[in-house]
Amino acid sequence: MADILMINLPLAGHTNPTLPLTEALVRRGHKVSYINAEEYRSKIESTGAEFIPYENFPAAPTERQKRTGIFRAAFDTGVNLERKYDLLIYEMFFYPGIRIAEKRGIPCVRQFSQQALNVKMLPHTTLRRKLASVLIDFSVMGTKNAKYMGLKNGSLGAAILYDKPPLNVVYVPQIFQSERDTFGEEYMFTVPMSESVSVTREIPYEAMKPPIVYISLGSLLSNKRFYAECVRAFGGKDVSVILNTGKVCPEELGKIPGNIYAYSYVPQVEVLRHADVFLTHCGMNSVNEAMRFGVPMVAMPLMNDQISNAERIVSLGIGKRARSFPRNGRQLYETVKEVYEDEQIRRRCAAIQGLFEKESSLDDVVDRIEKLLGQPCEKQFVNAP
Predict the structure, then answer these.
(1) Which of 81, 104, 122, 170 is deepest in the core (most CB within 10 A)?
(2) Nearest-angstrom CA–CA distance, 231 and 225
């Protein structure tokens, strides 16, 4: 049994995808300690792992405290722990993780919650994504923190490209990974099955007239004007709509037509089992779940990797792209209708759904992780272009 340390930032899209591997390691008999902010305690403890909160970090941080303090808090906690560990696992957004492993003299594994990136993909990387990486370097990490941590590659982009541990676990199906053939055996692709979260609310699927359209901007984004426009555009039409309003209370949207079922939270995995079309912001978790259940998508990306995900959805023929936050919701309705009526898109979704059975399992990933145990630290890192 190994003593494994996991470390991450308190961001849903970067933490949630790592929890199935956490649970798989615990099931295999390893002792796992997971460093994160207090808000993730219950989720992490539910995997069977020991939760370790950030040191010198508020239990209920403001958004500004999150933005400016999480990298330093996570780094200091990982470095200062007195317990000895056999291996460290970190997620790509917390790129100082590799430096912590070096300081502790142990091997490490990197996780990708989105498509992996290498130099072959740089010409295809969107300008907006490059700018987002630069913004993270300056406003979240900062040169002072980068120097304090002794980072050899002090930017997110350079760290992703050149700080390569011997094992990188990518939570994306191989067919969705751009330039897949340029990634070697040190990259494993796996998409663990998401678990449906139990809720007291019952959604009356049996009363809904097909097609069922699911609309969601994810867990972090909410836009009252957009939701209200969806109500106007889809209300009274020959469709049923499950509308996830996030932080906006459905009551704020005024009178809601009978064919629209608006909730401030929905169990997404369960909903996708019933949906015929998914209008999505293209977060990688949502895209993975849609592909797993063969649901065609209308892609409405907003930022970062969502844009490249939308491009991939279109290139694979499993959906169409819509303009983000259109002034006229009718454009969304027409695009949803086109996607639903496109038999070729449905056939392509079914074909990709069948490929999920061929991806590496979490047991395969754990097998590879166990082979790293005991390896000398100095032989694992590639820290230069």
Answers:
(1) 170
(2) 10
